[in-house]
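question for whoever is on the cluster today: can someone run the full assembly for these? two chains, 848 residues total. i dont have access anymore since they changed the login thing
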Amino acid sequence: MVSVAIFAAIVLFAVRFRRRRGVPAEQIEGSTPLELTWSIIPLGIFMVIFVWGAVIYFKERTPPRGATEVYVVAKQWMWKLQHEEGQREINELHVPVGRDVKMILTSQDVIHSFYVPAFRIKQDVLPGRYTTAWFHPTKAGTYHLFCAEYCGTQHSGMIGQVVVLEPAQYQAWLSGGGATGSMASSGQNVFLQLGCSTCHRSDTQGRGPSLAGLFGKPVQLEDGRVVTADENYIRESILTPGAKIVSGFKPIMPVFQGLVSEEQLNALVAYVKS
Amino acid sequence: MKPEPRGSGRRAGDDYSVGRETAGTEGAIAMATAAITAERENYLNQEYGIKSWLLTVDHKRIALLYLLSITFFFFIGGFFALLIRLELLTPAGDLVQADTYNKLFTMHGQVMIFFFLIPSIPAVLGNFLVPLMIGARDLAFPRINLLSWYLYIIAGIMMLHCMLTGGVDTGWTFYTPFSTAFSNTKVIEAGLAIFVSGFSSILTGLNFVVTIHRMRAPGMTWNRLPLFIWAHYATSIIQLLGTPVIAVTLVLVVLERAFHLGIFDPTRGGDPILFQHLFWFYSHPAVYIMILPSMGVVTEIVPCFTRKRIFGYKFVAMSSIGIAVLGFLVWAHHMFVAGISLYAALIFSMLSYLVAVPSAIKVFNWTATMYKGSITFATPMLYAFGFIGLFLMGGLTGLFLAALGIDVHVTDTYFVVAHFHYIMVGGAVMGYLGGMHFWWPKISGRMYPEALGKLAALLVFVGFNLTFFPQFILGYLGMPRRYWQYPPEFQVLNVLSTAGSTVLAVGYVLPMLYFLWSMRYGKIAPANPWGAAGLEWTTTSPPPTFNFDHTPVVDWEAYDYENIPAPEEARVAG
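^ ran it for u. tokens below:
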């Protein structure tokens, strides 16, 4: 609207005040009240747009409680997805209509970006940490999934689709897949395999802190800080345990950086959360 | 408020030469006898031979050296752009390989930004005009000025060498860890080339700041400076303070790539987001390095062709400074989906809206300057109109992008590509071309063909919109940027865009041809063909080596159009 008004004014002035003989230009120095008007009014409009945009953004960035979780690992040049229930998919994501879906994203190599234009979501996927995004599908159909952050040769080939199914069809799809148990249970296997359970016991007698019911709780650290036990905290504590030592415990845990794959890590996180 | 007319009782014409007592008289005489004095000694014909150019310390000759070199890089970058558009004519990746395509858009960006847009107006028009406009004989450090051109050339050769020996495919943004650990191309060479070109930019900025502070003619107070100078002052501050940051960042990329330091690479304990902060800390203000000088050009052109003083001088001047300062505080708006915290996003979104205010002030003031003017439509004015229109589009879509909720959807899509081309090509390049036409008579001593000039301006405007407007829609529909192949439903808009780019290319080649033609066959230009205010018009065209025969003494305000006779009708109507 404002732009139309300015375009109109420019065209109007250009026509109305084009050069005519004998009509000299009228010299006008300026006008402080006018300057203030056209500074303050746009500023007001800008602030309204800002707040409006910010409100949408906050909603978009805050996953609702109880959302179904999907772990996404991006790599050059494919999307590997795993449902909480254990189903694995590549470059395709099946979800039922009407259920909130939260994605926990990480990358195995460079930065990618998970973009589903139809859902208006986009989130960069970073190596070495988790980012999250969520959506609430309302209409069955097949939607583009793009990588939106340039990631090398086949960047434009790193595309897939999100298939939104009616709940009944979704159930059929779920039972058709060759799931080998939920992520949490495969996480438990990894947990036992790596010997985590020798120290992280479910009682308080272990050499490491108990992990039961840890997720989402504040953790008192040795250096006095308090952090919330979110996915990134758990991830960091597995890969580089020395970074944040829980108060009352010794820094004796070995480093798992390079020893566990992204998929195993995701399973471990899912297990700790369960 | 009406200014007190100087020497009341005299006719405007008399007043003009009386007011500009020293150099003005000289200029008036030169104007009257332009044809005879064509062979008068000037900066072009004072010396001949390659050496007299390569070792010159004359700011005007260095400006021409820059003009030649940036034009060369502009056509290389433009050639890459055409190949990109041709590849995107069809959804399948068929014209070039994926890796080649990635190199094309990377080097298109690097060449256009670091080797054309950043130096364009400051190093050519700024170099030529800053001393002339403030009544100085040269820049404060003529040798450093020449050094900055040599640095640019060294950087340019490094970049060319990088291109010819394989190129680079990181995107002009060099995002880590792709650039430091994954790309197999010549990242180090490209990084070092841009590192060196940065010093050229810093030295130009330094030279302008010192010159504007120390070399103004008697009476040329800060409030009498042409707004072109204010814009360049603001630009120079950004060049001085911002460029070292990108230089350091690129060195870190080179070090991490060569010696595997863990700065940005998470597998070595680095943080890839840190790179983005450092990169955009320069690269966002860099947009203002490109657009502020262009705004300065438009601020000179609009008063001249409306025969009016600029509306709200102080607000336009201060808005340049405001943009330079606020421009440093908005960088993370490039990173709303990159994984920064919600609250950081909130702050940067709000600050981004603040920087829009001084830009809006400028647009309003240009529009108000036209009110009750006596407007003619010479080529420079057409470019100024084009600038205002396209900059407005670019600015308003910038407001969309700064809105957090919308940005999530359209960032990293063709919407962003269209947005920044509206600012950097629609804005900066339109201003550059407008300025080249406006000051060409001063630079070359010849007039360009007006009718062809108008045609080219029209072609550029139409071609530009046809190329980039469809990209807004493509982006809104969800087509990501930097895609070598794309889903077929995006094809129609891509074909339109490619068609537009060919029109645009003609619009860009045409001025180069007729500028060259006019150097030999153009009409001899008088000292002040447009009847423009400003000291540069009081000396002969082309100016003598030391610009003014006597140091001018300024006792009038900027844009004193009331006391300057309008030029012949024929000259501006073409």
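summary bc i know u wont read the tokens: The radius of gyration of chain A is 27 Å. Chain A is about 30% helix and 25% strand.
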